[in-house]
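Two entries, shown back to back:
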Amino acid sequence: MSYLHVDVFAPHAYAGNSLPVFLDGAGLNADQMQAITRELRHFEAIFLEAEADAGTYRARVFDLVEELPFAGHPIIGAAAALHETAERKEDQQWTFNLADRSVTVVTQRTGSGYFGMLDQGPAQVFGEMAASDEIAAAFGLNFADLDPTLPLAIISTGLRYLIVPVRPQVLARARIRADISGLLAAMGAQFAVLFDRAACEIRHWNNDGILEDIATGSAAGTIGAYCLRYCGARSGEAFTLNQGRFAGRPSELIVAPHGTPDNINSVKVGGEVAIVGHGAIVAPPHA
């Protein structure tokens, strides 16, 4: 069972967020996919199965803990991997059918790899949250570290993120020392992302704080929506979001929200993808 190893949101290999892409995951069940993901130890893995329509694939994404209904960097990486193996090298469009919706990615060849732009679809704003000592402390911060000019908000383009804006230079001190899943669930959020508007930079961890993500496409989509709603971003104008430098893998995510502050009808997230190598699983997990 072969796979491609790619680095997403990176202009060259050994940067950005790494990913194994299984181009033919047909015949594997969820337990097998989860076992393979844990074995390879990337943040996430994606398993594809070709469907009847050309350029259309069923996609399942797993992190080290569970299957995810949506994730940005695996979908962009999968599109680049498909382009790498395609006979035609001009610009391509791919459709990925997830558990509850379909998304499209447009890819183009670059000098050293590929560029993929994912349309995450409309954003949902679930509400604003009051800043509090409890929320600041969950990230090892003080209340004064939170940006007083911006609200906390829960936004989703597929996963519900609590967006926590912080003052400049604060990201370097942030840490998660105890699991925040319960705190987030009580607010109606699944994950959290810290956002420094001045640096246009984010940090995101697994909820237990053990692993820091390097480049989080789903979080970037919510930041795009947040910036359109609260920060004066203009519809259709792309900006660069930075992530990963604190984990030693600086990454650049291109984000373009579309719509109005009250009706965010689309957020596109893209970046460069480098092809790192090929691999094969010769001993699949038992079904």
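entry 2 starts here
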Amino acid sequence: MKRLLLSLLFISTLLFQPWLVAETLRVDAQWLKQNFDPSTMVIVDTRSTADFEISHIPNAVNLHEELTYQDKKSGGLIAPPNVIQDILRERGIDTHKTAIVYDDGNLITAARVFWTLEVYGIKQVRILNGGFADWLSHGFDVSDRPLKPKVSNYVPQVDHRRIASKFSTRLASINPKQSLIDARDTSAYRGETSTAKRFGHIPSAMNIAVHEHFEKQDNDANHLLSLDALAALYKGVPKDEKVVLYCEVGAVSSTNYLVLRELGYDVANYDASWREWGNDLSLPIEK
């Protein structure tokens, strides 16, 4: 079995090619206010429908983050292609427009939708840094009117480089040419707390918790650190290695995913994450 795993990890290393070009995948409220063009962009509000109906950024469509899961209560598995196809078509989202996603300002739920859209072939995705809280702090207009977008012809094109499975994560954990990152809090990483039957972390994983990516501003919204500061945070992660991320249910690790995409890493998010790994007694763990 070990020989088979080693052979497969060698093949997987050959298949994964790094993206070495860093790019800014965030926009700010001022930019969005001045540059929004409905013919080339769609604004995606990832908050709950109830919050969206109270007020939202004008011209936004509502795509609650929980819709990206098969069943968030039981685990982090991403919704299947046929479900995502219907969700995106109804909201006028397709590969020809840039999707600008936002949440209340925590950046985590928006990052989960960001990752989902990239998995399903939406190549131009940006996140609103600071989210709705930052928009409000600028005093910009809001709306309580639902938008009725033109239904798109979106067809899912799964980018398998963006998503990791239990098996590929197992390979990453024993592959010296791949990096594994645990995005949970340090207490969970050390095995002091757990949402699964077992406590600890996946072998070889390093811990870069999601909160390390943020700076707080006066409006209490999370704002991503500068690219230079984020590059310093990840200086110990080789740029030429595949990176696999996990957390509890593939949510907070989506923020790490966004950041590593900005920094030009070849990165995948393990959606089932610790909720699956920690409950599978056949898989190894460390504390």
